[in-house]
Amino acid sequence: MVSALLFLFIAWQISVGGPLLRVDERLGNAMSSGNLPGGVAQLLSDLGSVDVALPVLAVALAHTAWRGHRDGLPQWWLRPLVAALTMTAVPALVVPLKKVIARTGPAAMGPSTGYYPSGHTTTAAVAYGACLLLLLPYVRGAYARRELTIGYIIVNAGVGLGLVRRGYHWPLDVVGAWCLSVVLLYAMCAMCAAWAGRAPRD
Length: 202
Hints:
The protein is mainly α.
């Protein structure tokens, strides 16, 4: 999968101090001194915190389970369960990856390591992505589905921009997190399809 390969390529560039890393740090320094107000950037970055993203996902999980049970679906619990498991995979993967790759952060973060991939970015992308995948089947009309998808993209772009603008992460930390999130959301869809395929037929 392209996303997984790109994630590994970025991790390799970070590990060897490749030319992509130097470009990334120059770009990050330029973005951190950009015109976006610091308060707005902080608000955007906070959308990737577990305090915000997890309650939103919890509402989507509850709604999907309720709708499925109300509509008499035989596996009404399946998609919410898989989405919840996908979300638990975020810290299970991100925390050890941060330790192994041990990337130093921007100057504002001091000499500490563990910035690749961005946890806030992964949390936002997976939590809101799972919400999108859970709710899209209940959204009528191609226009509404398209707008919901565009909203998801804008929110996640905002989270990444806010993190870099505030000096919390380098741009490649965000891009790598998006790549990892695509893999996780793809796995979520694949598991739902596989488990649904094993359901007993009437």
